[in-house]
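A.,

Following up on our hallway conversation. Structure tokens first:
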């Protein structure tokens, strides 16, 4: 997932894009029925709140160790299910006031704005401009054919199996089949997509070669990546003063306690940017860290890996080539998804 850094905080671009898309759609929909517009807002934000705060319910021990982790993590798949149950209840209670035509215009705007902002941050300017033109068409004269156009564009850019493309397909089926059962199903599916597309791990586009890591550990030993037998190595760059670094530590430790075969996890303390040896000792004791922690005392490795903000997590293959980079805090679930995505390296 791509992040933007504001001081010590890393904000997911997808979250920012989604929030701006909702605000824009709310502003543009102010002339439609007040009841429908308020219901749409209620559905969206209820889904987000239930999905987000379900992290406390499903990861209570991690939350107790690092309460700040609530800012960065969510309830995952279980949170989606719980949020869907909440939405199903609301939809049943409010089914008489839904105006489906207003819902589909609202959805078309959200998809267009979300795509413009997301692609813009990724510097895919041509695709961003195409989506901007789609938004202009939606605003000038909305027709159901625009939903078909959005579906084809999503399939071209993201593939037919992406969550956003599949939900757009369900939208089309609802519009053209006009069945009440399908309409309720699609609204639920659209809102379930909200969280799904915010946590997707981005696809790697290329491998990046780096100098091999060769650093001392907190135990006084030397760690050389070239001498390791693991086929995949997760490298987490951090500092003890960093709030999101603290938030992700229980997740990293949980992952370390159940490592997939052929996978290694190491932490690289950016010692030159940190608060000293005792701060690191206290940090490791607080979070009961058992996986290797390396000391980048001269900032050579952090500079070589272009670590501009922390935490930054990098996935390397056996040759030390970078396969993936995640800027911002990571959860155990995200790490396991990352390894699953690159499973072919473990099978070689």
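Then the amino acids I'd put at each of the 348 positions:
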């Amino acid at each position: 997932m791509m992040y933007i850094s504001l001081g010590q905080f890393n904000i997911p671009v997808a979250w920012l894009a989604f929030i701006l898309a909702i605000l824009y759609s709310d502003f543009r929909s102010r002339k439609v029925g007040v009841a429908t517009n308020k219901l749409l807002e209620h559905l969206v934000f209820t889904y987000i709140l239930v999905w987000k705060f379900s992290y406390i319910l499903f990861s209570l021990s991690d939350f107790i160790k690092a309460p700040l982790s609530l800012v960065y993590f969510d309830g995952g798949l279980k949170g989606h299910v719980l949020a869907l149950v909440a939405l199903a209840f609301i939809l049943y209670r409010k089914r008489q006031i839904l105006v489906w035509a207003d819902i589909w215009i609202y959805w078309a705007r959200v998809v267009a704005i979300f795509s413009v902002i997301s692609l813009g941050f990724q510097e895919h300017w041509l695709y961003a401009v195409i989506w901007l033109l789609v938004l202009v068409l939606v605003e000038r004269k909305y027709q159901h054919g625009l939903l078909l156009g959005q579906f084809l564009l999503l399939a071209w850019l993201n593939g037919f199996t992406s969550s956003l493309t599949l939900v757009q397909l369900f939208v089309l089926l609802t519009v053209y089949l006009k069945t009440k059962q399908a309409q309720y199903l699609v609204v639920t599916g659209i809102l379930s997509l909200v969280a799904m597309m915010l946590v997707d791990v981005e696809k790697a586009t290329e491998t990046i070669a780096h100098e091999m890591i060769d650093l001392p550990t907190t135990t006084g030993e030397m760690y050389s990546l070239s001498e390791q037998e693991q086929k995949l190595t997760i490298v987490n760059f951090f500092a003890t003063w960093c709030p999101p670094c603290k938030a992700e530590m229980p997740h990293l430790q949980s992952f370390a306690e159940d490592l997939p075969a052929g996978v290694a996890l190491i932490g690289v303390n950016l010692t030159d940017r940190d608060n000293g040896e005792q701060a690191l000792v206290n940090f490791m004791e607080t979070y009961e860290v058992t996986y290797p922690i390396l000391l980048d005392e001269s900032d050579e490795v952090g500079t070589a890996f272009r670590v501009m903000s922390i935490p930054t997590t990098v996935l390397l293959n056996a040759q030390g080539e970078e396969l993936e980079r995640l800027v911002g805090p990571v959860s155990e679930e995200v790490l396991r998804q990352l390894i699953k995505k690159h499973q072919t390296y473990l099978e070689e």
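Strands lie at 3-6, 9-12, 208-209, 214-216, 222-224, 232-238, 263-269, 293-295, 312-317, 321-327. Curious whether your intuition agrees with the design.

B.
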